[in-house]
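The material for today's practical consists of a large collection of protein records. An example says more than a description, so a record of this kind follows:
***
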Amino acid sequence: MNKVVVGLSGGVDSSVAAATLHHQGYEVIGLTLWLMKGKGQCCSEGMVDAARLCEELEIPHHIVDSRDVFQENIIDFLVSGYQAGITPLPCSQCNRAVKFSPMLDYAKKELGTDKIATGHYARINYDHQSDRYQLLRAVDRHKDQSYFLYDLTQELLAGSVFPLGNQTKEETRRVAAEFGLATADKPESQDLCLVEAHGSMQTFLDRYINQKEGDIVDMTGNVLGKHTGIHHYTIGQRRGLGIAAAEPLYVVKLDAVMNRVIVGDRHAGGRLECTVSRLNWVSIAEPTAPIPAEVQIRYRSKPVPAQIIPIENSRIKVIFAEHQFGITPGQAAVFYSGEMVLGGGIIEVESQT
């Protein structure tokens, strides 16, 4: 019998992943990572629901204290990023460093298997011609989470299973009801567990970063208002600026050195290119020449045509077919070819063109 360790958060998606594999005859072992205290699907409440599921399925349930790993790789990472005036993306970092890699390591060393499964909406394909595992979008494009998984390595893809990749969220709910799972009607969780646990990102950040008042200025340096900390703002933000203007203004830059929030019109927030570093080529070998791709600069944004151009120091330049609004340092740029994730990295530098 095949043995697989399923990461359980206590939500309906991971519950159905475990129940599906169990129904298919796998020897399923539940594994929950204790990431932080408080409410949230991956915290105390989620652990209770995960334990209840394992009782329903009559499978073992392991809990691993990962709070120190989460603190170092996510909380400290986020706080230092926001202090520097960027908007870090924690989810891809969390998936690789906190979840998938430690889970697979635990499965191999403690549970005698080299397979883990999660409730992520994505697919994995092995391409014999290139001898590589490929990361693909989920069938349900509204729930597709491949954007957050671009940083997985070939080893992690080889050891991972995504049972929900070929079905929609509605089908997941239906399967949960058919299995009679207690999580079948559990409300959808927040995209970001820290927001779910603390109520808002601002509330979370204010626990770690002192509020420091500064100026909100326009593109020529004229003071338009005051802010209580640059960590309360992100590129492209329009609402909550607390300033009056004849036309809509957006955050176009965060100046950590001068402690300023710089605003401008929508045209000022547009960029034609950006530089991306900390690259991971998940489905293809690292390109040595320019390649075309569709590039997604935020989880909810649409992929747009662009040229990927390798430059010095293992970085690439992305040149978009048209100006993009809200390109944000610290967020991920993920490169697609149709439904396949080529790779991705972290937006490093904004071009002024």
